[in-house]
Amino acid sequence: MFAYYLKLGLRNLRRNPALTALMVLTLAVGVAASVSTLTILHVMSGNPMPHKSERLIVPLIDNAPLQGYAPGEKPDDDQLSYRDAMNLLASQQGIRRTAIMGTGGAVEPDRKDMPSFAATGIAPTRDFFAMFEVPFLHGQPWSEADDRAGADVIVLTRKLAEKLYGDANPVGRRMRYSGFDYLIVGVIDSWNPVPRAHRLIGKGAFDNEDELFLPMASAVRHEWQNNGSTSCFDDRGPGYQAFLDSECTWIQFWFELNTASDRAALQDWLNAYAAEQRKLGRLPRNAPNKLYDMMQWLEYQKVVGNDNKLSAWLAFGFLLLCLVNTIGLLLAKFSVRAAEVGVRRALGASRREIFRQFLTETAVIGLAGGVLGLLFAWGALALIALQSKELSLVARMDWVMLIVTFLMAVAAAMLAGLLPTWRACQVTPALQLKSQ
Hints:
By secondary structure, this protein is of the alpha+beta class. It folds into 2 domains: about 1-45 and about 305-435, no CATH class; about 55-300, no CATH class. It has 16 helices and 11 strands. It has helices at about 1-15, 15-45, 80-90, 125-130, 145-150, 160-165, 215-220, 240-245, 265-280, 295-300, 305-335, 340-345, 350-385, 390-395, 400-425, 430-435; strands at about 55-60, 80, 95-110, 115-125, 135-140, 155, 175, 180-190, 210-215, 250-255, 290-295. It is found in: Cell membrane. This is ABC transporter ATP-binding protein. One of its GO terms (cellular component) is plasma membrane. GO terms for molecular function: ATP binding; transmembrane transporter activity.
């Protein structure tokens, strides 16, 4: 019977094309508005590494001065000092550890037809690539010996490598960056996780991909400043070494644990480390030491702000308004078919069968509204993506939202059709037959 009711539904769409088109359009606009907003929220709040995010941990140690501090306040900065980062790297806690700073400088191409240009990236320690599962197109990460020695080696993104060398494999060649010659040891494939959980501070959760990677020890050896957020709480004194020895915070740090259950042991170790540092005259606030897994870190940094959530609620409010209008249109559409319902009831059709027929017809309207709403949503996301580079990363629809669009449209139409369908089932056959 479902196939029969489906044919009836498709046939009845053509009986009043203007009213049907208005219902489909109303439903499509409501679905497109809500799905566009929900898609952006879905991408922004996504888990970049769902299979291991609970094992990727950010430590926070509050090393700011005591002056102006009230117990329980949020730390003044969410990064680590160089001293703490180096101590945590040497701790052997977890199965991997990485410290990350930002870099920026000029690339001087070998090609005479290409002028120098600015390029930004990060200077992590070697474990970064395995920890965040960075895919390699050519070569590999630098070695542990390179990490210790601060060797002038570099890893390029595929985009930068193709810009400089075309389709050729550049591994083993040298390039000049920020006034120094670097040996290219690897080229990563396309990799730009959204959100960029590994480096939220200083560059943002939805910025473009880093263009190059080099050892932190190399950047420090050349006395580069961090290309990103740097907070200093005291007069650190002159010179780069004084900067390294200061309480300035500018390094983002990650642990990778073997299992999520190892987090308690890491917390105990971090508390013991902080206690030892206080004996040395540091960490005067005696604030709690915090650990955040990847999703907690995204929440703590408010990657999805209240304004984004409010936009989603407003979009669903608009969808609700569209549903109310659709209910009115369906009432008008079904009310003129009272005679048809009366004849069917007189011929033996039950209220249940009438209900199924009209609800199937409503689902057909919802399906049509879903297809049109999907087109509208794609158009809306394309326009949003043109507004900025950051929005272009989040304004994209995946297969999950594609399914959600159709389910939402059909479910919304069937929800809107419950009252009109129920009213249609209440037709009294005798009264309708007498009126004919």
